[in-house]
Amino acid sequence: MSKVYFVGCGPGDPDLLTIKAKKLIQKADVLIYSGSLIPSSIVKLCKKGQKHNAAKLVREEIFNLLKKNSKKGKLVVRLHDGDPTIYGAIKEQIDNLQKKGIESIVIPGVTSFLASAAALGTQLTLPGVTQTIIVTRVERRTKVPKRERISELAKHKATMVFYLSVHLLPEIVKQAIEGGYKKSTPAAVVYRASWDDQKTISGTLKDITKKVWKEKITRTAIVFIGDVIKPKSYKFSRLYDKTFSHGFRKAKIAVKTKN
């Protein structure tokens, strides 16, 4: 019996694969991948193994493939886009394997919201603006507690990141404003971050929906809301301040204090 590896393959660009992920894909005897979200250039790295597109399978079929091949001692890789721990449905797979005495190992990957932030060239936490990132999605078939409604989360005025929700952009905007964001709050959408057809769209809560609809983007995109996207002002980090001491450097200038 062999271990099953749940591997994050990043947002799309093969160059953003971790070295560990690439080695496992190349060595895999069995590769089960999310075909609708992972480019063929990554799947093709697995040259000798069996390949199964999870988009065409139901839960029980995936479980059976994982268990059957693990018991045969094969190297089994369950490949997820981005990072498998965010909206990846790995918990149910790991628990099912554990009941059968099969060990699982999770290999992290570059998640799409970080690749999207990189595409925007923005910093999601800025001193004097916000130090908090809220990652969520719009409620539809997957229900959320009332305390996690967008209008409730928006009260924090943190950077908000939405997965699996760009087709519901008007609802995001509506609830964000209900929660206290101004219509002038910066917003952005990144479509297929790191892919060859990547698109970035920036605006405000007032006009972002119109801009995104004009580009006909309804899926495979990350939505951002928050002042960090286009800050009017922010404070410099204390880490590199010449008046700030830490474990590796003493302050070069003494701070004057009032008597």
Fold and architecture overview:
The protein has 259 residues and is an alpha/beta fold. It has two domains: 4-107, Tetrapyrrole methylase, N-terminal domain (Cobalt-precorrin-4 Transmethylase, domain 1, 3-Layer(aba) Sandwich), CATH 3.40.1010; 112-229, Methyltransferase, Cobalt-precorrin-4 Transmethylase, Domain 2, CATH 3.30.950. The chain is built from eight helices and ten strands. The protein has helices spanning 19-27, 40-43, 59-71, 90-99, 112-120, 150-153, 169-178, 208-214, and strands at 4-8, 30-33, 50-53, 76-80, 104-107, 133-137, 159-163, 186-191, 199-204, 221-225. The strands form two sheets. A five-stranded parallel sheet has the order 3-2-4-1-5, with helices on both faces. Strands 6-7-10-8-9 form a five-stranded mixed sheet, sandwiched between helices. The longest helix is centred in the first third of the chain and has 13 residues, at 59-71. The protein is globular, with a radius of gyration of 22 Å. The termini are far apart.
Unreliable spans are none
Order of helices and strands: EHEHEHEHEHEHEHEEHE
Q: What is the strand tally?
A: 10
Overall form: globular
Largest sheet: 5 strands, parallel
CATH fold annotation of the largest domain: Methyltransferase, Cobalt-precorrin-4 Transmethylase, Domain 2
Strand content: 15-25%
Give the distance, in angstroms, between the N- and C-terminal Cα atoms: 71 Å
Q: Let me know the CATH homologous superfamily of the largest domain.
A: Tetrapyrrole methylase, C-terminal domain
Q: Please state the CA-atom Rg, rounded to the nearest Å.
A: 22 Å
CATH class of the largest domain: Alpha Beta
Main structural class: alpha/beta
Estimate percent helicity. Answer: 25-40%
